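Protocol step 4 of 6: structure prediction from sequence.
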Amino acid sequence: MANYVKNEITVTGNEQVQNKMKEFMEMFRSSDERMDTKFFAKVFYKDPKFGEDSNGWYINNVGTKWAYMEDINEDTEFTVTSAWSPVPEFIQHLYNILVELDPDVSVENRFEDEFYEPVGGMVVYKGMYSYGEEYDFNYPNEDEMDEDDDYDELMDDFYDSIESAKSSLIHACRATIERGQGTPIEYREEEYIEE
């Protein structure tokens, strides 16, 4: 069974971007297939060609072998669950759709593997992306605690360190792009959704 990866995605853009994101999110809100991997692709991609091997299509176009919509916080903040890895190709694809509506749009992904290996961040902005990961997180072990240790406090500290790492990585990714040192992304018109 695949490790699950939680991808917390945030889109920042103008009113047109917000309206487009609302369209996407309404498709999920109004469907019983919200957690279906093929439905996820059909919402965001013009004409996904799954063929015999949908995993192959997903790896090439989303960045992992499957993904689905887990939760919608707001139209521009949502959580995608994926298999084994985050969704870098999807983040770039979403940016490519939205940059046509706002040249200053940015898409961020704060992600964590279910075992916190890795925890990371990715930013797509100004036609570039930057990506970073961390692996060195030690889950508190209740069996190795001293009598004075408070397990709940140790867990709170652990989760705070995960969130802090993701925030630091997002900040570092954005700084890399601001210095013009991000990796250029490709514009692939044939993948866009038509109105």
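Step 5 (inspection) to follow. The chain has a mean pLDDT of 89.
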